[in-house]
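Quick check before the chapter quiz. The format below is the same one you will see on the exam, so make sure you can read both the input and the output lines.
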Amino acid sequence: MTTPTTLDSPAAVARAEERRSARIQDYASVVTPTSIAVSASGRIAYVRTEANPAADTNEHSIWLASPQQQLTAGPADTSPAWHPVSTLLVFVRPDSSGTPQLWKVDATGGPAVQMTTTAQLPLGAGAPVFSPDGARIAFSAPVDRTAAGSSHLLVAKRLNYKVDGSGVRGSVRAHLFEFDLAAGSLRQLTDGDWDASHPAYSPDGTELAFTAAMDGNADLTRASSAWTVSLTDLASAPRMLGHARGIAGPLTWTPAGDAVVAVGWHTPIIHNNELLVLHRDQRVEDRSLTSALDRNVMPGGTGYPGGAPRFTADGDIVFCIRNHGSTELHKIDFGSGSVSPLLTGEQTVVSGLALTSGKAVVALATATSFGEVAVIDLETRAVETVTELNTELTTSVAFPVASERWFDISDAPVFRVGSCATRTSRAPVRWFWTSTADHTMPGPVHPPRCTRTTRNWSRSDTRS
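Here is the expected output.
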């Protein structure tokens, strides 16, 4: 199996001797690939994120890989999604008022064209998902359910009057919409005093699965479940899929369309995220595919590595897990539950995941790379890097070399401690990181980079 180079490998040590230590400005020059999407013909699109120190912001544009081609100009283009059978790519971009809307561009050439407007979506649109036939696009979007405006007094009765990252939101909730490409029309699919997210079309395109916390006390219990709404009968109420009430992440329909595979847990408690099979038929018990792994399934998201699980053409599921600080790529047989590693290794961090013709495409950061787009063969597990976003930086800067120590303590099974020093300087450069042998301590979104200091520092928390 091909695994990334580690910091203490002979090759990495030899190269580090010839390089200089990293400077603060080097980190501002790092280019990050995210939001991987692959077309039916195998073209890879990704969001290229670059820092703009002068403006104190990040800039996002959409590029094609292998060969490299800039597809959109940015500076705030995100969430690319390919049409199932054509070269059309839909993405999210702010309009002239700064409100994020859906736009489209043809990968063969031509300017980007706006699809939705503030007249339709005053608060903007979310990440697009194509229907199987490519005729419709589903997405989650914020809606002010009272349209009262900010001049009215806000009365907070529940804890969900505000959310992390958004602040006070009052009566704004996220709900599902569907855009018809041919007609240019838009319709709202869900409504209620709850948020709908992670839309996923059924294989026949007649239903849309999503996650929502519909319980009246969900702000206290954090209970969230998987649901499905009929696209042919919107008058019917959403129906719950399976029984789990701790669903945290994206949904993927089984090829047969009789169930979804969800990321979460049976109940809303602190626990590993697992792959759960939730059936349309409520008489069928929920099934965990990854309970034997004792590792946290990583579905990806803002600020977190991993990727949404995907079914292969053979019926296996490719997914990501957290393992000792790395975020690895694995494959599981849907029937037997047998798990096979695809991409592992110390300080290996996978972000984003798409499948095409027996291969997985990811954004991959390693001990010697800040991040590139990589293609992994699902049979041979060979890894091919198809971008060179940070080649100049990684060939001139000496990465710190890590060493580890493992020991037992009284209130946890096993802790790992690491320290770093660059090969170009013997000044005290230290990194102190603790993580348990299971999943419960988080690793970095990208491989850890040491900071020059005269003192040790420690980091320990319980987020997964």
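If your answer matched, good. Residues 19 and 339 are 40 Å apart (CA to CA).
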